[in-house]
Design a protein that fits this description.
Blueprint lengths: L3 E4 L8 E7 L8 E6 L11 H4 L15 E3 L9 E3 L2 H19 L4 E5 L5 H14 L5 E3 L6 H11 L17 E5 L3 H4 L4 H9 L3 E5 L5 H4 L3 E3 L6 H14 L5 H7 E2 L1 H8 L4 H8 L3 H13 L3 E5 L1 H4 L4 H14 L9 E4 L6 H4 L8 E2 L3 E2 L3 H11 L13 H6 L9 E5 L3 H4 L3 H10 L2 E6 L11 E4 L8 E4 L4 E5 L12 H11 L10 H12 L11 H7 L2 E2 L25 E2 L18 E6 L15 H6 L4 E4 L1 H6 L7 E5 L4 E8 L7 E5 L5 H4 L1 E4 L6 E2 L3 E7 L4
Parallel strand pairs: 6-7, 6-16, 8-9, 8-12, 9-10, 11-22, 12-13, 16-17, 17-18, 23-27, 24-26
Antiparallel strand pairs: 1-2, 2-3, 4-5, 4-18, 14-15, 19-20, 20-21, 23-30, 25-26, 25-30, 28-29
Bound molecules: iron/sulfur cluster.
Protein name: Nitrite reductase
GO cellular component, one term: membrane
Organism: Actinoplanes utahensis
């Protein structure tokens, strides 16, 4: 039996693992033994999700053939098995009908941050070249977009961590804002644990006392939606105490004066009132960051998934720049990417406004370069389309998408205001969903396409450090299951544009290298062979002689001036604040045993035994006020919908805040789709709710 080195199908840590085929569990299905590998990121560690990932491969719920509606056009009729020919025939007819009647932009695609680089690249090209449509975006818009926008503005580049994860172990002070790696990516905790064992101090900013906060030196518990004020308040103290790095600011940045002036309004007493964080904690946090370095500031979705998420990430970047942390060893600002290929997924053209290499779709030079690689006229390239939620919200409307293909996304569970999402999907003329399982979104589709999984395909992923790695095939997909790459290729052929596409992963990657060359995310020097030999290569890597770039910003910033930019940002209230009818704040997040919308992990027995259902985390004081005991059913209500969950009482959460995990249907029935004006990120992390005890049964 040949062992295959590959990576976990789930989060952005992309832990290395070894797969060895073994006796099948059931006739006709492959079996595989999964063991952790000594890859430089996970160093032999895996979390419960990774250890059980092989369960997905031969799961009884697995989609093994295409499905179509028994009565075409009637989504209330049952789904039945079909041949690929029949499925394709229905899809191509729907595409042609929509485009003849409503134009090219009436057909669109919604992608995912779990797609390999090759698939993300091909999907972006498929929409622009085969469909000639502008309608494409992906679920990463709901994940990384605020931090990405802020980093692009300040640093001229968006790479989640601009240093290897191992640097975290060497930092003396680490500030984690809205990040809970102990639950989200447990093997990464080895770096924090090593640092702490060597005397490093960790500070966690989170309205909940998470497993990460439990081990921290300091835990700051701000009211959700006030992180920007908190960051500006910390900068105010740093300026007042003379802790800013004047030499770094003068030599390597621009725009500090305006930011300094803005922080005058964030004096500690006011920030304590706004955030609920005591002044003593504010002072100690800045003191540690400024005087006990090297120091890092790491943000994640808790800071970023707000209707002012970009400016909030910007405020943390301002603080990191003012303290002179960026571009120095074991120091800096980074954002912890969530999805498996959240980083690569946003570099190769899946976003509504981007082309491969992180190029802008509205930049004439970028259009000319990519068009030349694709062999088309630049004028054929459409202009930027709508962002993810804007696209969903316009589905079925006169100017919106009429035929939609969703890949690697379960937006019925993962998008905000899920009641609206379901309503909009029902308004479509035609919906295609590609997935491994019949997700909640697939249940609404006209056609469901079964896709090959992580261990059944070749390709590359880019992890949270910007390290490009190989996903390798350990076993073939079941006979009637196809890779998305093959489906994209075959559909392009049926649409008369087949000559522009291939489904051979390495050939796609070679084209991706050319398309990205000279761009911000430059993969020109990265090859499958180099990845194999070097255990991954860090972008940017502009030539085969280039060693790759594990650490950014040592010599400069890829901005017009070569300097990092301070950008003035000010607090504004969340799009929805508590009132008499909805007096509390809902915030959402992860459980250790689940991943994203749970399409995969809710089907893994060991994970569901460990955590059978979602729990709403409620402070005992708040529970007492409403007669709620631990384990009771509670109904959470917002202006958009309601969800019933079992209560878990915890004095580790603020008494004015309720936490609900987003891995099951429910939490996003409540969340607010108010969008950040810069990144178009919805306000997942703060909305107003009411709570009451719900009857059993
Ligand atoms: Fe997989 Fe992430 Fe767990 Fe590693 S930490 S095993 S990549 S889910």
């Amino acid at each position: 039996m040949t062992a295959t080195q590959t990576h976990c199908p789930y989060c952005a840590l992309q832990c290395g693992m070894t797969l060895t085929p073994e006796i099948p569990l059931r006739p006709g299905m492959p079996g595989v033994r999964l063991e952790p590998a000594e890859f430089p990121v996970n160093r032999g560690g895996l979390c419960a999700k990774g250890f059980t990932a092989a369960d997905l491969l031969d799961h009884t719920d697995r989609l093994l053939t295409p499905l179509v509606r028994k009565e075409p056009g009637n989504r209330d009729s049952p789904l039945r098995e079909a041949s690929w020919e029949e499925a394709y025939e229905r899809i191509v007819t729907a595409i042609r009908t929509s485009q003849q009647e409503y134009g090219p932009d009436s057909v669109g695609c919604f992608g995912g941050g779990g797609l390999t680089n090759e698939k993300a690249y091909t999907l972006g090209k498929f929409v622009r070249v085969a469909l000639r449509s502008s309608a494409i975006d992906y679920n990463g818009r709901f994940c990384m977009s605020s931090a990405a926008t802020a980093a692009n503005r300040a640093l001229g580049i968006d790479r989640g961590l601009p240093f290897p994860l191992a640097d975290v172990a060497e930092a003396r002070t680490v500030l984690l804002v809205g990040a809970n790696p102990a639950d989200a990516m447990p093997p990464s905790m080895q770096y924090l644990d090593t640092g702490r064992a060597n005397g490093a101090k960790h500070i966690v900013v989170d309205p909940r006392r998470t497993n990460t906060a439990n081990g921290a030196h300091l835990h700051l518990q701000p009211l959700p939606g006030t992180d920007l004020a908190l960051a500006n308040g910390l900068l105010h103290i740093a300026i007042r105490e003379g802790w800013v790095d004047e030499a770094f600011i003068a030599a390597r940045t621009e725009g500090f004066a305006a930011v300094k002036a803005a922080t005058n309004a964030y004096w500690p007493e006011r920030v304590e009132r706004m955030t609920g964080v005591p002044e003593t904690q504010l002072r100690e946090t800045v003191r540690l960051l400024a005087t006990e370095g090297p120091s890092m500031i790491l943000t994640a979705r808790g800071a970023e998934q707000h209707s002012n998420g970009t400016n909030t990430a910007q405020a943390w970047l301002n603080l990191a720049l003012a303290l002179g942390l960026v571009g120095k060893p074991f120091s800096g600002y980074g954002t912890i990417t969530g999805q498996g290929n959240g980083q690569g997924g946003r570099e190769h053209g899946q976003k509504a406004d981007q082309l491969p290499g992180y190029r802008r779709l509205d930049d004439p030079a970028a259009r000319a370069h990519v068009a030349s690689v694709w062999g088309i006229d630049p004028a054929e390239l459409p202009q930027p389309g709508r962002s993810a939620y804007e696209m969903i919200d316009a589905l079925g409307s006169d100017a919106g998408v009429k035929t939609l293909w969703i890949l690697a996304s379960n937006i019925v569970v993962s998008a905000p205001h899920s009641g609206n999402v379901v309503g909009k999907l029902r308004q479509l003329d035609f919906l295609v969903v590609s997935d491994i399982f019949r997700s909640e979104t697939a249940e609404l589709a006209d056609v469901v396409l079964p896709t090959a999984q992580w261990a059944e395909e070749e390709g590359t992923m880019t992890n949270l450090e910007g390290r490009v790695i190989r996903r390798r095939m350990a076993l073939p997909p079941p006979p009637m299951v196809k890779s998305d790459l093959t489906v994209l290729n075959e559909l392009a052929g049926l649409l008369g544009r087949g000559e522009f596409f291939t489904d051979e992963p390495e050939a796609v990657f070679e084209e991706l290298r050319r398309a990205s060359a000279g761009g911000i995310a430059d993969y020109a020097g990265i090859s499958y062979q180099r990845i194999d030999e070097e255990q991954g290569v860090f972008w940017p890597c502009p030539s085969e002689e280039h060693p790759g770039t594990p650490r950014l910003f040592a010599d400069g910033f890829p901005t017009a001036s070569g300097r990092a930019r301070f950008i003035r940002v000010d607090h504004r209230d969340p799009a929805e604040v508590p009132d008499k009818t909805f007096p509390y704040v809902l915030t959402t997040g992860r459980n250790m045993q689940q991943y994203q919308s749970g399409t995969q992990t809710r089907r893994v027995r060991a994970l569901t035994v460990a955590l059978p259902e979602p729990r709403a985390e409620i402070h005992p004081d708040l529970a007492r006020r409403h007669g709620i005991a631990d384990g009771d059913l509670v109904e959470l209500r917002s202006r958009r919908g309601a969800a019933t969950l079992r209560a878990r009482l915890s004095d580790g959460i603020r008494p004015d805040t309720v936490f609900a995990p987003f891995h099951w249907p429910g939490a996003n029935a409540l969340t607010n789709p108010a969008l950040d004006p810069h990144s178009k990120m919805p306000a997942f992390k703060a909305c107003a709710i009411a709570i009451s005890r719900a009857p059993e049964g």
